[in-house]
Amino acid sequence: MLELRRHNAAFCSPHFVEFFRRQVTEAIHAYRMFTRDEPILVAVSGGKDSLALWDVLIEEGYRTAGLYLDLGIFDYSQESKARCEAFAAARGEKLYVERVADAVGAPIHEVQKVTRRPTCSACGLSKRYLLNRAALEHGYGVVATGHNLDDEAATLFGSVMHWQTEALARQSPALGATHAKLARRVKPLYRLSELETAGYAFLRKIDYIVDECPFARGATSLAHKEVLNRLEEVSPGAKHNFLFGFLDKARPVFERAADVTLHECRVCGQVTTGELCAFCKLADQVKRRAGAKGAAPAGDHVAPDDGRRPWQTQ
Amino acid sequence: MLELRRHNAAFCSPHFVEFFRRQVTEAIHAYRMFTRDEPILVAVSGGKDSLALWDVLIEEGYRTAGLYLDLGIFDYSQESKARCEAFAAARGEKLYVERVADAVGAPIHEVQKVTRRPTCSACGLSKRYLLNRAALEHGYGVVATGHNLDDEAATLFGSVMHWQTEALARQSPALGATHAKLARRVKPLYRLSELETAGYAFLRKIDYIVDECPFARGATSLAHKEVLNRLEEVSPGAKHNFLFGFLDKARPVFERAADVTLHECRVCGQVTTGELCAFCKLADQVKRRAGAKGAAPAGDHVAPDDGRRPWQTQ
Q1: B231 part of contact set with chain A, CB < 8 Å
Q2: I want to staple A146 with a disulfide (CB 3.0 to 4.6 A). Which of A34, A50, A86, B53 is the partner?
Q3: Residue A50: burial class (beta carbons within 10 Å; 0-12, 13-18, 19+)
Q4: What kind and span of H or E run contains A41?
Q5: What's the confidence (pLDDT) of residue B309?
Q6: Which pTM value belongs to this model?
Q7: Cα–Cα distance between A77 and A73 in angstroms, integer?
Q8: Residue B114 Cα distances to A190, B71, B274, B276, B294, angstroms
Q9: Do B158 and B198 form a contact (C-beta atoms < 8 A)?
Q10: In sequence order, which residues have a C-beta less than 8 Å from that of residue A33 and are 6 or more positions away?
Q11: Three-state DSSP class for residue A264
């Protein structure tokens, strides 16, 4: 019996699985994320969320393939890759594997030394870039990620604490393709909590990697999750109301008309708001550092994101 | 020696007093709260913040009088009134005293039983109403309250957790008079933390009531203050950045053109967005309850505020 205080409901196992899948399909329909006819690239990390998502999409009859980005984080990456491969093999699904080090010039923990920014920042940037590139290369118009309610609420919380109005305008369960070289990006688990995806993965006997990324320790996002959990304890539903209240009432306010002009990066041809995209700047920093060991890092600022407007259907 | 991590500074006593007063005068000028020529009504509770504010205004040569609202909360109200009277007498300043029970029909802890809303809600409503009424009656165009940085950050946090967009549009250190029957409402301490006002009150030997209101225990605003203190510990300046980032970047976004039409209440003549003002509804509920003891409370919803737009000068 699984009790969900937020929904004021308790489920037995088969009904919970059904409830979970219905939440995912409702999310897909509400934001018109994709249809059954188009191929979907599912970004999988080997963790509970992305594998649970892939499982639901397969079971619901969607056309999917997985993409695993190998960040080169020692045993952690080895083990998480093995989980993704086993999952795909057992279900006869295609899994693409891409090594971040090949693209950026060094494994992610080396990259951090060059940029002087937190590891998570360079990692997030690289992942967004490579996901999009892989989708285009392999002919997928949409990338699905396993971000859940807790992830989204924590990201929102961080943006709000600093009133990052551009990030607030862009936070959405579905980002549209505002340029021919951008795949859509969707988060079909945004209605489901961390605990709920763990429950689903458990009931579905999914073998996932339980450890957090070793670089996540002390990350601000974890401090924010802690704060939100504390608020959730005091008033159940707080996280849900925070995220959904934002999506309903506040995001439209931030999504101003202010158009962002997108160009193609002069090095790689992918989309950027500047001349050179943030990923190429990063790769260039890594290369220069490797060429001139000991030289001071350039301190070039990496653009935060691709400036896309969320994809709204209503 | 007083160390302020947020400002990365340490002060000896005379310099702290100077720093504190400069923060207040800068706030007054930045929002053009009032001039030295006009009389200011200072709402005093007997606590550190409002008495510190009154002290600064007197020392800086402003024309002030105090207003104490007696909420009828047993010993707590007795003691806090005594502090205000002693403060005013020692400085030869005028203090108005008004009994909430006379206006609303019952002391504040009785009012709560009628409304089924938290005590703090009926209390806040009554205070806003009576402050404004007293200002008009005694000829003051502006009411100053002792809300500090922690208060403002906690209120903002609460509004954000529920995305109360109307409250967000209205949260400002200065609310203008958008109707002839509204006094301006200003918060000259919004740049100073709770700890800073406590330090100032201590250095100035102000005898204030240390106890919190007995009804505040378990109030959501205290839970929110706790969360913000936790975030402040992790990154000093978090509260300041949260509030100031909001005022700079987000509040203008929420302050939409949507005009609120203000009427005069058909019972008391004060300003309201409806036909009957929230205070008169509350007083009516109290009266009906007293007339028909045991009858179910009407459950009438009390309007949240007067719908005023913040008073901006820039």
Answers
A1: yes
A2: A50
A3: buried
A4: strand A40-44
A5: 43
A6: 0.82
A7: 5
A8: 40, 16, 21, 18, 10
A9: no
A10: A27, A142, A144, A173, A174, A184, A186, A188
A11: strand
Nearest to B127 by CA among B275, B305, B307, B266: B305
pLDDT classification of A257: cutoffs 50, 70, 90: very low
Q: Residue with structure tokens 């009858």?
A: B295
d(CA A229, CA A232): 5
Pair type for strands A64-70 and A95-99? parallel
Q: Which positions in chain B touch A160 (Cβ < 8 Å)?
A: 160, 242
Contacts of residue B155, defined as CB under 8 A and 6 or more positions apart, other chains included, come to B147, B167, B171, B221
> Which chain A residues in 151-180 lie under 8 Å from chain B, judged by CB atoms?
160-163, 165
Q: Give me the residue from A165, A223, A241 closest to B250, CB to CB.
A: A165
* C-alpha–C-alpha distance, residues B146 and B68, integer Å: 13
Give CA–CA dist A206/B314, Å, rounded: 58
Confirm or reject contact between B246 and chain A (CB < 8 A).
yes
To the nearest whole angstrom, how far is the Cα of A161 from the nearest Cα of chain B? 5
CB A303 within 8 A of CB A273: yes
Put simply, the answer to whether A227 touches B223 (Cβ < 8 Å) is no
Pairing of strands B271-272, A263-264: unpaired
Confidence of residue B306 (pLDDT cuts 50, 70, 90): very low
Alpha helices in chain A (DSSP H): 13-30, 48-59, 74-91, 100-104, 108-115, 119-138, 149-161, 165-170, 194-203, 220-234, 238-245, 251-254, 278-291
Residues 6+ apart with CB under 8 A from A100: A69, A70, A71, A72, A107, A108, A126, A127, A130
Give A245→chain B minimum CA distance, Å: 6
Look at B227 and A223 and tell me if their CB atoms are within 8 Å. no
Six-digit token string for B65: 């009088």
Q: Mutating which of B159, B168, B253, B254 best tests the A interface, going by the most A Cβ atoms within 10 A?
A: B253
Give, for A205, the enclosing helix (H) or strand (E): none
A176-234 per-position pLDDT tens digit? 888 888 999 999 999 999 999 999 999 999 999 988 887 876 677 778 888 999 999 88
Contact call for B248 and A162, based on CB within 8 A: no
A242 contacts B161? CB cut-off 8 A? yes
CB atoms within 10 A of CB A32: 15
- CB of A248 less than 8 A from some CB of B: yes
Instruction: Write down the pLDDT at residue B281.
Output: 85
Can you tell me whether residue B126 is helix, strand or coil? Answer: helix
